[in-house]
Amino acid sequence: MIVVLTGGTGGAKLVDGLYRVVGDEALTCIVNTGDDFRWWGLHVSPDIDSVVYALAGMLSPERGWGVRDDTFFALETMRKLGEPDWFQVGDRDLAIHLVRTKLLKEGRTLSAATATIAEKLGVEARILPMSDSAVETRVETEAGELNFQEYFVKRRHRDPVTGVRLEGAAEARPAPGVVEAIRSAQAIVLAPSNPITSIGPILAVPGIRAALRETAAGVIAVSPMVGDRAFSGPAADLMAMQGLPVSIAGVAKAYEDFLDVLIVDSCDADAARGLERQGIEVHCENILLRTNEDKIRLARVVLAQISRLDGEEAKAS
């Protein structure tokens, strides 16, 4: 079993690649829910949906989120009615939010609602929210404190950030099966997701980071950084705000207490040698994810590192 900690568009792309190589039965995805929020009265779980859509073959390849070939008649009507329209929800996407909200109102947990939706869409992988408790990523900016979607989508992450607060994280518990999956995994993979607002909320749930430190499985992270830039989104600015180097060194620092191997882009070979001198194992490859072939190639790179770690463990025993 391969356990993937994931969030954002980069995470969904890697999950898609792994699925294309090993199938979904071998995958367990632990997904960030710090981005969850209410939209038109509905509970929206953007990162969970991206993973579900990727595994169901529904993910929009052009946008990297939402449903392939979706229509937007509901959005157009809501706009005419004077409702907010900055969060671009398509009609098929909207149906998922309606069902999730209905299940939650009936008393289901987010884990149970996610499992029901995934099953109905033909997904066999285990998709686990990081927690059934509400954890909200709040971004502190010069314009005031914003929820993550307001900061990222509505205001296009243009506001200078002064802090990130994970509301509810300290009181949250890992969703059922999360810690057990980490402890029993063959390998753990951290997707090329924002270390602060995609992977960070998962690690902030009490018990998850400790499980990563204690697991016997190898832990492999794929860098979301190339040089001093993120593949997409505000990761570079948020890492700088947290005092992390805006580079692969910052990614390694964020995960240093449990990381076994960091996979980075080939253009970071010089920086990788610097990390290796510090005792951090780094593997260089082309990690850009533009096409399905790129996803498959990177998935095979990850799997090769898993096999290598397994082989080293077998020799040691």
3D architecture notes:
This protein has 317 residues and is an alpha/beta fold. Helices cover 42% and strands 19% of the residues. It has 13 helices and 14 strands. The protein has a seven-stranded parallel beta sheet with strand order 5-2-1-9-10-13-14, with helices on both faces. A hairpin with a 2-residue loop joins strand 3 and strand 4 (42-44). Helix 1 (8-22) crosses helix 13 and helix 4 packs across helix 5 (110-120). It is globular. The mean pLDDT is 95.
Briefly, what is this?
The protein has 317 residues and is an alpha/beta fold. It contains 13 helices and 14 strands.
Question: Could you outline the blueprint of secondary structure elements for this entry?
Answer:
Blueprint: E1 2-6, H1 8-22, E2 27-31, E3 37-39, E4 42-44, H2 46-55, H3 73-80, H4 91-105, H5 110-120, E5 126-129, E6 136-141, E7 144-147, H6 148-154, E8 161-167, H7 178-184, E9 187-190, H8 200-204, H9 208-214, E10 218-222, E11 225-226, E12 229-230, H10 235-241, H11 248-254, E13 261-265, H12 269-277, E14 282-285, H13 292-316
Parallel strand pairs: 1-2, 1-9, 2-5, 9-10, 10-13, 13-14
Antiparallel strand pairs: 3-4, 6-7, 6-8, 11-12
Helix pairs in contact: 1-2, 1-13, 4-5, 7-9
